[in-house]
Amino acid sequence: MWCLCHSGPLRILITSYLLALTAFPVYAAPPTDSASPGDAGCIGLKAVNPRCRPQETAYHREYFYIGGRYVPYPVLGGNLVYDQLYVEKLIPTGGGVKQPYPLVFFHGGGSAGSVWLQTPDNRKGWASYFLDRGYAVYIVDQTSVGRATQEDLPGYPLRIGSTAEIAQRGFTVPELTNAYPQSQLHTQWPGKGIIGDPIFDAFAAQFIPLTTNLTRQELSMRASGCELLSLIGPSYLISHSIGALHPILLSDQCPQLVAGNINVEPATIPFQSYTGNATSAVGRTPARPWGLTNTKITYDPPANAPTDLKKLDNEIDTPALRSCIYQAEPARKLPQIAKVPYVALTGEASPHITYDQCVVNYLRQAGVKVDWIKLGEIGIPGNGHFLFLEKNNLQIAEVVETWINRNRRT
């Protein structure tokens, strides 16, 4: 029998190869057992370990850049693309799409669309909840932030999204600051909600800059957002915080493509901005000169300039119930926005429980049919501003699903 090991030159070659292998470290195979999110080794950022079992629903994923335009850039002698919107398309793998209308998710300020995928303690997020129910889910990064960051650097200047301390005071442990009495009802944040807690650290790490040019962002979101809807068809829009600006804009621009407008703690406070009651019970800054937006929306009778909107502000301002600015009567109507069903959801212990009435009543005054779901009043207590990430997040998602079913477009 002929044996390779006795072939002179070839034996030398094989020996050299085996010696070379010993120069590299030998790694053990990863453990085959998996751990659940409740495992101490799979909390917060530790869940990146391959042994931690993912909780997201299985889905097919594609991504797209929608809208945008070529703009000459003489410095490099070429063209750049400005104003495009980043969109992820998620389709459930199980039975595929079973619902007639897609859902489009809009994130709030200082975060990106990924916030809808899972919670900081690695539980299932709202995207998975609705994928389980057969919806096509679209998640956007708004123009200027995240994966929709723009090469038009002067046109989209950025500022800090949030500090960890702001997140603690306004979102995760408002009860410690006690800036408004309802804060003491907060019970739903997972973990301790402070720096050093692994769940909070995972939450705080997600914050990103946001643009200070809100006019430019609104104009680009109008164009790219309506283009997205023209491609996917009428959809329900789900937004959080200042992300509620964009469904309002799309309801005004292309209402025939918006099946419903679902707003989790909308931050479109008319004519002003609050700081989340984190430091002051009475402080405010002027904002949104068109009432709900920074750019022109359709009023009837028409308003050609923000100064055409006559404002009324004579309410008492308290920590428990912030004062609002409304239109002086007779109020102009919002005929385009009124074509779209609107709902706001507010947590019992959030700063928004003290001022979301400003948004709701302004819309009602302008002729918009509005549902306002105050979670504490329907037996869902203890939620703060990021209620879709809190311990009872899927219970609240069920409330949203119920509203969609009751307001399903025929």
So what's the oligomer here?
single chain
- Average residue pLDDT: 90
| End-to-end separation | 81 Å
Structural class: alpha/beta
Question: How are the secondary structure elements laid out?
Answer:
Layout: H1 8-21, E1 59-73, E2 78-92, E3 103-106, H2 126-132, E4 137-141, E5 158-159, H3 164-172, H4 174-177, H5 198-204, E6 210-211, H6 214-232, E7 235-240, H7 245-253, E8 258-264, E9 272-273, E10 285-286, E11 311-312, E12 326-327, E13 342-346, H8 356-365, E14 370-374, H9 393-406
Parallel strand pairs: 3-4, 3-7, 7-8, 8-13, 13-14
Antiparallel strand pairs: 1-2, 2-4, 5-6, 9-10, 11-12
Description:
The chain is α/β, with parallel strands linked by helices. It has 9 helices and 14 strands. The chain has helices at 8-21, 126-132, 164-172, 174-177, 198-204, 214-232, 245-253, 356-365, 393-406, and strands spanning 59-73, 78-92, 103-106, 137-141, 158-159, 210-211, 235-240, 258-264, 272-273, 285-286, 311-312, 326-327, 342-346, 370-374. The strands form 4 sheets. An 8-stranded mixed sheet has the order 1-2-4-3-7-8-13-14, sandwiched between helices. Strands 5-6 form a two-stranded antiparallel sheet. Helix 6 (214-232) crosses helix 7. The longest helix has 19 residues, at 214-232. The radius of gyration is 25 Å and the shape is globular. The N and C termini lie far apart (81 Å). Mean pLDDT is 90; it is low at 1-32 and 276-282.
